Please model this.
Amino acid sequence: MKYLHGSPKPLIVWLTCFAFTLASILVCPSKGLALSIEQETALGKKFLANIKQHFALLDDPFAQEYIDELGNALGKTVIVKPFPFHFYIIKKNDLNAFAGPGGHIFVYSGLIGAMDNVDELAGVLAHEMGHITARHLSQRIEQGEKIGLATMAAVLAGILIGGQVGAALTTGSVAAGIQTQLHYSREDERQADQLGFKYATQAGFEPIGLLNALRIIQRHSWAQADRVPPYLLTHPTGPERIANLESMIQAYHPGIDTGKQAIKLRRLFPVFRTIVRAKCGDPDRMKEVFETELHKGTHCSLAHLGLGIVYKARSEYLEAIRHLRLALEQMPESVPICRELGEAYQLKGDDRLALPLFERILARRPDDRQTMLLLAISYENLEYYDRAIRLLKRLASYEKVSPNVFYHLGLCYGRLNKLALAHYYFGTYFKRLRKYQKARFHFREAKRLATNDRSLQDRIDKASKAVP
Model:
């Protein structure tokens, strides 16, 4: 697609982007920033804990893998990263996205559902990454060293969240002072647009993405002040910002290589969007939406996928399986559809039908952790405990692993009458959940039963010492 209208000015745009990037590199923390990298990293962790306390985040392996891959594709074009980027999908129907401290970027499921293509989502993410690389948030926190990080994290969460939940977190004079500081200036927004435009286009995404995203937001009554987080009220979402973006688009020269990652993400976006809508929206409402799309003959495979997920969430497994089988017939290479169908069979108790689906995925993606866990559970349900344990122990060796891995290890060893190991893994499971009283009980039982196994006793001692 061409976006050249009139005389192009690529050199001017490039120099402007370079100047903004250079400015973000040269900012001196002691002069321009209230928070150091280390302070903002610590603040980011506490901020994330506040967000998780008040909002549900989408826990879906395909959706998380997709948004991480999109963010990483954009991040490869960033010259200097003050923090590693982390991406989250908030299960909420609002049209919102924001960058928290320390590199944490949050996108609401409602915004993803309203997007028409990945280029629009890439534009939004790249814009938020621009705020992070330019350290805009830290520049606004002039009182950063005057109050504790925990208080600052709660106040920032309230300001960025907005609404009733945000209001509850932003009471008091300290919160009011910080809220006044936090408003991004028009220059901040302009710089984030410039940086985001560069990140998105260099990663192979269409330059018109952010502009179209802003128009979608405006069409959905984004300007209603009672639904907009306070820090967004100064955003130039009107003619000025649109004109600036249009000027950059006019001066843009598309490259020859659009990027393999961008092509792949563009192809997978409809499935990603369908999964987000189905798993984050109200099930009754989404059932009506997908049925309407199916009756209209609009993207039937995606409508079947959406209905399969919705029926699975409603525990109506026969209907879920019917729709997911139809979706898989039309998209036989789709890993997420294959996994959703296998899980539906498993939940219905048809593990023998689930096995070949999970095994098919692992033949193509041997490190797919979610599928490994599902396959191990099906082996466990079919009493193939040795097979289940092999998979579960492989999962347990990874650095970041679901606590459920240890729970199922405990079950499998218990059913093999290896009770010391069963209690050891149950203790590990409860320790991961921070249920320390139960963890201590299971570790004590494991130690009592492991009298003839010195190696296991040492493992139990090491694990139990880490329990408060």
